[in-house]
Design a protein that fits this description.
38% of the residues lie in helices and 21% in strands. By secondary structure, the chain is α+β, with helices and mostly antiparallel strands. It folds into two domains: 253 residues, Bira Bifunctional Protein, Domain 2 (BirA Bifunctional Protein, domain 2), CATH 3.30.930.10; 93 residues, 3-Layer(aba) Sandwich (Rossmann fold), CATH 3.40.50.800. Helix 1 runs antiparallel to helix 5, helix 2 crosses helix 4 and helix 5 runs parallel beside helix 9. The chain is elongated, with a radius of gyration of 28 Å. The mean pLDDT is 93. It binds adenosine monophosphate (AMP). The site of adenosine monophosphate has 16 residues, from strand 6, strand 10, strand 11 and helix 11.
Length: 430
């Protein structure tokens, strides 16, 4: 048995190997296509922000900030954090660059890694990637529906069958504080039956009890008051309209009164999108996308009202399903031509010729490191090229190239300085 190398990647942080990169690239390409179609512009913010941005923005009592943030102090004494999610950084950038002076809404998207100190397991990593779409500066419920539609489309384009949208409204400052009191009162009357975490949550953030997965808390959750019955008129109407838009778009959703999402900044709409896993071991539905409206975050971060709505998809979880569903994804870039060479002089000449083809934008394959013609020709076969160019000692001296038509099985000799032009002409005719 081979000994494991001394260094391994840190727990929960993975190399993306070449055989998996093609899935990541396909997914990113799809997301970029949707971003262009729906008018989103790309933004990339630093991987690190001041830790305080997340403490204030994401919320001090959230799991993400309380337990999962990678923080460090710089030599200069700044407390920084690796981003555990994108939204606070995007809102910070929006404010920092005066984007509220642009025509509203501003539609931004970003793709990149996020970091959470989790206990690593399948589908839960410490470094993972997200595709994030945010619309800033717009109150309309149509935006909430559009964000959901975009992520639904992403999964639909990947041919993931029957994604389920779970949706809820958690109200806003106008009605949530009142509901929190009602809920806390109810939870206190069941205090002794709650799990340890939820006992603390009753004091700090009672809504989060609704999110608890502990067996013990399930019966208490099931009989708890529901926020949907306590929304103010504005929040109620907003939610009703979001659902009407979803109906109009024909998007299948399920109301989930226990969906609160772990973060402090959400207002009104919250949603997640799940799929049934195709993996034999994984029976539970997998959360692929999570998001919602966050009308107060601008106020918290920059004392500015920025109504906004957004969501993020978990790239590794989606890629894992892509691999399970389509293990043979074949994306080796198509080559039309293959360049084979025999002998030192021919190798030298073929370097130049290869560059001539690149300049003419003709996809061409090679095995310059190989000397055996047989090995090179079998690679040309595998690539299923239309033409193989063969350059031997004689051709190199005569400044010619043998052009083999792989479809017809014919071959002829062409002058080296004419071959790019000639191949281009033939490929166009094809
Ligand atoms: P969240 O905002 O936490 O719901 O995250 C949005 C999406 O990111 C989730 O639905 C997951 O698909 C993905 N995600 C969140 N945390 C992790 C993690 N630790 N590892 C892998 N994917 C994650």
């Amino acid at each position: 048995m081979s000994k494991k190398p001394h260094f391994q990647s840190p727990p929960g942080m993975h190399d993306i190997l070449p055989e998996d990169e093609k899935y990541f690239q396909k997914l990113f390409h799809l997301a970029e296509g949707l971003a262009n179609f729906y008018g989103f512009e790309r933004i990339d913010t630093p991987l690190m922000e001041f830790a305080e941005l997340f403490e204030k923005g994401t919320g001090q009592t959230t799991d993400i900030v309380e337990k999962q943030m990678f923080t460090l102090r710089t030599r200069g004494g700044d407390a920084l954090a690796l981003r555990p999610e994108f939204t606070p950084g995007l809102v910070r950038a929006f404010l920092q660059h005066g984007m509220s002076n642009l025509p509203q809404p501003v539609k931004l998207y970003s793709i990149g890694p996020a970091f959470r100190y989790e206990s690593p397991q399948a589908g839960r990593f410490r470094q993972f990637h997200q595709i994030d779409f945010e619309v800033l500066g717009e109150t309309s419920p149509a935006i909430d529906a559009q964000i959901i539609q975009i992520f639904y489309n992403l999964l639909d384009e990947l041919k993931f069958k029957n994604p389920v949208i779970e949706i809820n409204s958690i109200g806003a400052n106008c009605c949530r504080p009142y509901f929190k009191k009602i809920l806390a009162g109810y939870l206190r009357s069941h205090y002794n039956s709650l799990c340890l975490d939820c006992k603390r949550r009753v004091r700090e953030n009672p809504l989060r009890v609704l999110d608890c997965k502990e067996e013990k808390c399930q019966p208490i959750k099931a009989a708890s008051p529901q926020i949907i019955d306590h929304l103010c008129e504005d929040c109620h109407n907003h939610f009703k309209e979001v659902l009407e838009f979803l109906d109009e778009l024909g998007l299948p959703y399920r109301l989930n009164p226990y969906l609160v999402r772990g973060l402090d900044y959400y207002t009104k709409t919250v949603f997640e999108i799940f799929i049934e896993s195709t993996s034999a071991q994984n029976q539970a539905p997998i959360a692929l996308v999570g998001g919602g409206r966050y009308d107060n975050l601008g106020k918290v971060i920059g004392n500015k009202d920025i109504p906004a709505c957004g969501a993020a998809a978990g790239v590794e979880r989606i890629v894992q399903e892509m691999i399970l569903r389509q293990p043979e994804l074949h994306t080796e870039t198509r080559k039309d031509v293959f360049l084979a060479q025999v002998g030192n002089l021919a190798k030298k000449k073929s370097l130049r010729l290869f560059e001539d083809f690149r300049r003419a934008r003709i996809p061409i394959g090679e095995s310059l490191s190989k000397d055996s013609l047989k090995v090179q020709l079998s690679r040309a076969d595998r690539l299923q090229v239309r033409y193989t160019l063969i350059l031997g000692q004689k051709e190199a001296l005569e400044k010619t190239v043998i052009v083999k038509d792989m479809k017809r099985g014919t071959q002829e000799t062409i002058k080296m300085d004419k071959v790019v032009h000639e191949i281009k002409k033939r490929l166009l005719k094809k």
